């Protein structure tokens, strides 16, 4: 019997690989609070920490009598004990499983648990594998949060145990799963067909929808008739949506989908529902630097250009007038159904201050306002209703250049003007300052027309002319050639400022408020009058002597009368 036992023992020793790292099968012979005792057919039993038999879920997985695989670390540690490892055996089992999956193309399960550069890490039992980002799905995914932390199926596409390198692919599994469904689906797809799908991924330009074996693109412009900024306003990853097949390219297996096409196009017959000049309620949906977009009904947006927001401020920023979400009244200005564009106006729903001004005021009325700005070409005056009137430089003064006269005015100053013209359609109001004195000029020239002899005072003298004040607010111009019968080279040699003079009015231009006067003409009139008087006295003294004298006297009288 001893001989038989010895033979059996030797045989058992020969069947067990005694090298460290070898995987052997042992029997659980004892379990306590800290260790598990395994008999693996060796001279002594091995002890393994209890923690190596706890699963990821925290459960203790063995009982006494169970057969387990363990890795041999040390056959005899010098104290007669054998050291075994369950973790190393489990890892070796995992590598065997990976090798089998790699060689036979089998799918394995793993936990996608973290991002790394270029992809993700996947835990397969105790081995960490790499999942490239391009192999997560059949199509590139922008968002993967719905997959992270989940146990998924993968295929091993690269395996190197010596370098501890494992690369897996989820796309390969999906392609295998979808191949049969895909072929069946591709054969049944038709343009115009309605069906349901699951949103797989979102991008800035749309959403990819799984139709059951093939993905279709739902472009952002085909999600709704109204304007949307991002697909997330309409759908989320994982949503089941109803869509319509718009286009299907069988050669490239590309499917274009639409959601808005499930309903009627709101742009059809839009002009009939909203004739030009119609006022409607709208909701502001978006702001830009050049205006705002407003929705007049679901799926129909129009543009309110910045120039159509305010009557008086053409460059106002839209954010100072409206905000996103505001409900506003707008007017339909134009509808282009073919290009799907609507022009709207906000200011047209308010009273036009230019029309109101034209109704309240008329040409020739006097009006007061404050100077808003002074430019190279005139003065802008703020008027009622927030509108501006313009005094051109040429309408500031009768007597001096506008460039000089404008220097007497400053911004903010209150100023009285005369309305010269109102053009409400072109939004222009012309004002004048010098026209405030126009009545004095007219009154004077009505009384003192051309040929009148008047008195005046020299206001200023230049070499070639002098300015004569004829009455308050009315001036005449005395050219140097009109000072005397004798030639005068420089008016300053004959006239002084403040000097009183008697002149004859020789020219009146009421349109330009110009009066030309002459001392020379007045003196010539005086000489002719004296000559006539002298002739008259001489004739009366001599009396008529002949018939010829009588005829000559009569002719002289006629000449005098004509002068």
Characterise the protein shown here:
- This protein has 563 residues and is an alpha+beta fold.
- Helices cover 21% and strands 37% of the residues.
- It has nine helices and 30 strands.
- Strands 1-2-3-5-4 form a five-stranded mixed barrel.
- About 1% of the residues have low confidence.
Strand arrangement in the largest pleated sheet: 1-2-3-5-4
**Uncertain stretches:** 11-16
Q: Could you say which structural class the secondary elements and strand pairing correspond to?
A: alpha+beta
Strand content: 35-45%
The radius of gyration is 54 Å
Question: What is the number of beta strands?
Answer: 30
Quaternary form = single chain
What do the pLDDT scores average to? 82
Please outline the major beta sheet. 5 strands, mixed, barrel
N/C terminus separation: 180 Å
In a nutshell, what does this entry contain?
The protein is α+β, with helices and mostly antiparallel strands and 563 residues long.
Which terms would index this structure?
5-stranded antiparallel beta sheet, alpha+beta, 5-stranded mixed barrel
Write the layout of secondary structure elements.
Elements: H1 2-15, E1 23-31, E2 35-39, E3 46-49, E4 67-74, E5 82-85, H2 86-104, E6 107-116, E7 119-124, E8 127-132, E9 151-160, E10 165-169, H3 171-188, E11 194-203, E12 206-210, E13 215-219, E14 240-249, E15 254-258, H4 270-273, E16 279-288, E17 291-297, E18 300-305, E19 327-336, E20 341-345, H5 353-360, E21 366-374, E22 378-382, E23 388-392, H6 402-405, E24 414-423, E25 428-432, H7 438-447, E26 453-461, E27 465-471, E28 474-479, E29 500-509, E30 514-518, H8 519-542, H9 547-562
Parallel strand pairs: 3-5, 13-15, 18-20, 23-25, 28-30
Antiparallel strand pairs: 1-2, 1-4, 2-3, 4-5, 6-7, 6-9, 7-8, 9-10, 11-12, 11-14, 12-13, 14-15, 16-17, 16-19, 17-18, 19-20, 21-22, 21-24, 22-23, 24-25, 26-27, 26-29, 27-28, 29-30
């Amino acid at each position: 019997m001893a001989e038989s036992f010895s033979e059996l023992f030797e045989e058992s020793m020969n069947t067990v690989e005694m090298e460290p790292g070898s995987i052997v099968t042992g029997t659980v012979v004892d379990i306590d609070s800290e260790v598990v005792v395994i008999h693996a057919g060796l001279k002594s039993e091995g002890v393994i920490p209890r923690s190596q038999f706890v699963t990821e879920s925290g459960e203790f997985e063995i009982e006494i009598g169970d057969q387990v695989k363990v890795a041999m670390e040390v056959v005899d540690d010098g104290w007669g004990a054998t050291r075994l490892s369950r973790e190393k055996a489990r890892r070796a089992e995992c590598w065997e499983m990976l090798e089998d999956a790699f060689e036979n193309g089998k799918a394995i399960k793993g936990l996608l648990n973290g991002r790394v550069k270029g992809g993700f890490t996947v835990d397969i039992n105790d081995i960490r594998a790499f999942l490239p980002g391009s192999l997560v799905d059949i199509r590139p995914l922008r968002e993967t949060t719905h997959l992270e932390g989940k146990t998924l199926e993968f295929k091993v596409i690269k395996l190197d145990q010596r370098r501890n390198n494992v690369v897996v692919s989820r796309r390969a599994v999906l392609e295998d799963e979808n191949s049969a469904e895909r072929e069946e689906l591709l054969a049944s797809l038709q343009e115009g067909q309605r069906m349901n799908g699951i949103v797989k991924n979102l991008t800035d330009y749309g959403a990819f929808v799984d139709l059951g074996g093939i993905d279709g693109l739902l472009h952002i412009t085909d999600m709704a008739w109204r304007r949307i900024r991002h697909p997330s306003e309409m759908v989320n990853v994982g949503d089941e949506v109803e869509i319509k097949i718009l286009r299907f390219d069988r050669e490239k297996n590309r499917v274009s989908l639409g959601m808005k096409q499930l309903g009627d196009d709101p742009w059809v017959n839009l002009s009939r529902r909203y004739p030009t000049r119609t006022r409607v309620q709208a909701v502001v949906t978006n702001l830009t630097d050049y205006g705002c977009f407003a929705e007049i009904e679901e799926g129909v947006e129009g543009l309110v250009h910045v120039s159509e927001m305010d009557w008086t401020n053409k460059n106002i920023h839209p954010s100072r007038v409206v905000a996103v979400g505001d409900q506003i009244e707008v007017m339909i200005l134009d509808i282009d159904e073919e290009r799907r564009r609507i022009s709207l106006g906000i200011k047209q729903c308010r009273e036009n201050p230019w029309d109101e001004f034209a109704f309240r005021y008329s040409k020739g009325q006097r009006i007061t306002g404050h100077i808003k700005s002074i430019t190279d070409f005139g003065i802008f005056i703020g008027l009622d209703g927030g509108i501006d009137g313009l005094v051109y430089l040429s309408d500031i003064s009768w007597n001096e250049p506008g460039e000089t006269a404008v220097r007497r005015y400053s911004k903010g100053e209150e100023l009285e003007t005369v309305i010269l013209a109102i053009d409400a359609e072109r939004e222009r109001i012309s004002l004048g300052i010098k026209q405030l004195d126009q009545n004095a000029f007219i009154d004077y020239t009505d009384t003192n027309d051309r040929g009148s002899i008047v008195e005046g005072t020299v206001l200023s003298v230049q070499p070639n002319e002098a300015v004569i004040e004829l009455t308050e607010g009315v001036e005449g111009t005395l050219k140097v050639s009109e000072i005397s019968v004798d030639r005068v080279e420089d008016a300053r040699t004959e006239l002084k400022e403040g000097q009183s003079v008697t002149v004859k009015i020789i020219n009146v231009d009421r349109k330009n408020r110009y009066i030309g006067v002459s001392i020379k003409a007045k003196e010539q009139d005086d000489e002719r009058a004296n000559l006539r008087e002298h002739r008259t006295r001489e004739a009366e003294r001599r009396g008529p002597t002949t018939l010829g004298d009588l005829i000559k006297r009569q002719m002289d009288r006629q000449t005098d009368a004509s002068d």
